[in-house]
Amino acid sequence: MSLNSSQLRAFHTVAVHRQFTTAARALNVTQPTISNQVAALELQFDVRLFDRSARGVTLTPVGERLFELTQQHFAIAEQAEQLLSASGTLAGGFVRIGADGPHHVMPVVAKFTQLYPELEVSLQMGNAGAVLQRLAEARLDVAIVGRKSPDTRFHFEVFRQSPIVCFAAIQHPLSQRDSVALTDIVKHKMILREPASETRQLFERALRAGRLTIGEHLQIESREAVREAVAENLGVGVVSLAELDPDPRLRVLPINDADMNMTEYIACMTDRRGLSVVEAFFDAARASNVRDTPTS
User: Fold this and answer.
1) 153: which of 93, 184, 217, 278 is 20 to 30 A away, CA to CA?
2) What CATH number should be reported for the domain whose range is 5-66?
3) 66-73 contacts: CB < 8 A, separation 24 or more?
4) Sequence-ordered list of residues with C-beta below 8 angstroms from that of 187, at least 6 positions apart, any chain
5) Distance CA 106, CA 121 (A)
6) What is the pLDDT of residues 188-209, one digit of tens each?
7) What's the mean pLDDT in 78-106?
């Protein structure tokens, strides 16, 4: 029995989005069309690839195994398309970039578009886990993230290291100091990101090493909202220096008893390292890299 490429593409797209309606939009077809293509594939091989429910679909065990293969299949097809469209000169084509925050990636995008204005660029934001998942699913070509996965399918290169600093409103008592210790910070109400935040995890590891715990705090799931809460003197925060824009309302305070650095990585899939557009992005990232120094 031969595979129908349209049916295989339909299965893969539904597996990526976990919804028939969203997958249909992605392929620019109707929902009945994509449902019929998947059903035909299941009927041809007498298998069930998805368990369907009102909330969406989940892959069956054989669906999971097929999805692993289609990810490889369509990634290779896309690499071939990019190779041919770029013709080795980067004179055309596209690149899909992912990042877990704007501060690190925007200078790279600026440098990259300056060097290769002919390329079409798209940028997707999300937490590090989501960005890496999109890389693995061939929905992104390259990324800049603050988390390194042990999965050998990924290739990582250190892009930038930035110290974790404390910051407070200029009217806060800690703002009278040149630097602070961890014990100083936890005596005050804190404004913190969600527990999955890489910055918060680094900070909590340093506290545990010093046998300290977080006291009164307010949790906010947004960098911008944390900054505004600190500026309104609702508490003090900790942040990677590279992610804190200059603000006359705030005082940056180096932490003098803990060596905490946020490491950002350039990432791609290992089997895509040789693509000219991926190599060009890595080169642009290296060229745009700068070091951070604390400022008030």
Assistant:
1) 93
2) 1.10.10.10
3) 66/11, 66/15, 67/11, 67/12, 67/15, 70/8, 70/11, 70/12, 70/15, 71/12, 71/136, 71/137, 71/138, 73/8, 73/12
4) 215
5) 12
6) 999 999 888 888 999 999 999 9
7) 75
